[in-house]
Design goal:
The complex is a heterodimer. Chain A is mostly helical. Chain A is globular. Helices cover 29% and strands 26% of the residues of chain B. The chains are: A mainly alpha, B alpha/beta. Chains A and B meet through α2, α3 and α5 of A and α2, α9, β23, β24 and α10 of B.
Chain lengths: 85, 425
């Protein structure tokens, strides 16, 4: 996954994105009931994040989480975690 | 402190950059920077694992007396018979074998910050460039008259998962039909703020099936609690008349116990019960206190931007022992501390700029195996202090439908699988 293929990047995107792994599993690979992020395209992840933020996508906790980040932060997270097309 | 950082940086760069440029002119490369992490819970292991990712060449040791770890998250499901104690077991194998962490099974007696070394119970010392202190909590048994570390198993706290989880589970199963289980909640702050109320819920769920007519009595050292509206609404709906909550303002705080007769005394009242779960007041573990890392509150003040202790140089404090207001003391918070501290240490050792700290907490509670509720918050620095981002976070909606609660129960199990893999895997 992108975040650790350039492991030493101590940038804001990394500091933000590692938060996702608490619930979505290491490197976004979920071992249980929470959806995995691995292998998803950046554009798909961003569409989801924006949908959660506007509460236009059904969700339980993601709206509450995503509203804690501004749009450029969500873009940085999606870009870092997602695959490019 | 500056000398220490410079020396650490030289050590790291000596090994990391040495191959290309320095190897031609330096005969023996400087040793790698040494980071000693104390504590094998969520904060310590997460920090170790992520530090390896961000600083691949440094020397990382994790010191914990235990050879395995039982998670506090999901330990309430053991009391309800949903899982076994065995299911909570985590090992340090991945840390050692996959992530190249030196796992040392010893007890740290003190962090000697001036000398930058640890004193170990085994008699040796361990020199470090940066120390991460994540020893968790200690119980202040003496704060409850009549309670001691020795007699505590008669009224098991079960607030560190392990032997006492099994003891409390046995007490619950052996209770007479129609009996009463009391849960004594200490004054805040304590580990896992919603934990006592999740515990009351899951015990009630168990009793409903195996001991109808039995009751749960919560004697509380506080006047409000985490996810209170959600818990109390669920209790009325699912367990009518089974759970009674007495807050401190209604004489709910337990001041004295008689472990022989299983009686709990409050300021003016007394409660003779059949099973007592007394969760004592808490403070940072003795190691933190003995090393001068605590303030008058009994917890460790840190700079939330880096988790650096404000009381000692080159020492960082994470997890439940640290005072990281307004974050709760939770495994989720500890996991988040571990990652952000790893970034801060890696940046300090390699001379890179550190990105702004970004912390989060997401905690699930099970009311029943099919009824979950959550609380979440995002934290960042605001005018020099850590603050939860306004408008974000909060609890599950009060008016959610049954399938929403069921999905959050599924996510609670998923959260547990993920955080264990993220921290220990």
């Amino acid at each position: 996954m992108a975040v650790f293929s350039n492991a030493q990047a101590l940038d804001e995107a990394t500091a933000l994105a590692v938060n996702c792994f608490t619930c979505h599993g290491p490197e976004g690979t979920s071992p249980g009931e929470i959806p995995s992020l691995q292998g998803k395209r950046a554009a798909y992840l961003l569409e989801k994040l924006r949908g959660f933020k506007s509460d236009s996508l059904p969700n339980t906790v993601m709206h509450r989480i995503v509203t804690g980040y501004d749009n450029s932060q969500l873009e940085a997270i999606a870009h870092l975690l997602g695959t490019t097309p | 402190m500056t000398n220490g950082v410079d020396q650490s940086r030289r050590r790291l760069l000596g090994l990391a950059a040495g191959t290309a440029v320095l190897s031609a002119c330096v005969k023996s490369p400087l040793p790698a920077a040494r980071v000693a992490i104390i504590g094998g819970g969520f904060a310590g292991v997460t920090c170790a694992k992520y530090l390896r990712r961000f600083a691949p060449t440094i020397d990382i040791s994790l010191i914990t007396p235990e050879s395995e770890y039982f998670t506090c998250p999901f330990s309430n499901t053991v009391l309800a018979g949903i899982s076994r104690l065995e299911d909570l077991r985590q090992s340090y194998q991945a840390l050692r074998d996959i992530h190249g962490i030196k796992v040392v099974h010893d007890r740290v007696l003190a962090v000697e910050a001036v000398e930058r070394r640890l004193r170990l119970a085994g008699g040796s010392t361990l020199a470090y460039d940066k120390a991460v202190v994540a020893p968790g909590i200690d119980f202040d048994f003496a704060a409850v008259e009549g309670l001691t570390a020795e007699n505590s198993p008669r009224m098991p706290h079960a607030w560190k998962a392990g032997a006492q989880t099994a003891q409390l589970s046995e007490h619950i199963r052996a209770m007479k039909q129609g009996g009463t289980i009391a849960i004594s909640v200490p004054p805040a702050p304590f580990r896992c703020p919603p934990g006592p109320y999740e515990r009351a819920s899951l015990i009630a769920w168990y009793l409903q099936q195996h001991n109808p007519g039995a009751k749960v009595l919560i004697l509380d050292g506080n006047d409000s609690f985490s996810k209170q509206g959600l818990f109390t609404a669920a209790w009325q709906h699912l367990f009518p008349g089974m759970i009674e909550w007495i807050p401190i303002s209604q004489d709910g705080a337990v001041r004295r116990v008689d472990t022989g007769r299983t009686v709990l005394y409050t300021e003016i009242g007394e409660h003779a019960v059949d099973v007592a779960n007394v969760i004592p007041p808490q403070r940072a573990a003795a190691l933190a206190r003995d090393s001068g890392l605590t303030d008058a509150s009994g917890w460790c003040p840190v700079d939330p931007e880096t988790f650096a202790s404000t009381l000692a140089d080159d020492v960082y404090v994470l997890g439940d022992a640290a005072k990281v207001n307004p974050m709760p003391k939770s495994a989720s918070a500890a996991n988040s501390h571990g990652k952000q501290c790893a970034i801060a240490i890696a940046a300090a050792l390699t001379g890179q700029n550190k990105p702004p700290v970004s912390l989060h907490n997401t905690c699930y509670s099970l009311v029943t195996p099919a009824y979950g509720i959550s609380v979440s918050a995002i934290y960042r620095m605001d005018n020099g202090a850590l603050a939860s981002v306004a408008g974000a976070g909060g609890t599950s909606p009060a008016d959610a439908a049954e399938d929403f609660r069921r999905q959050e129960a599924d996510y609670a199990r998923g959260w547990y699988a993920s955080i264990c893999a993220d921290s220990f895997g």
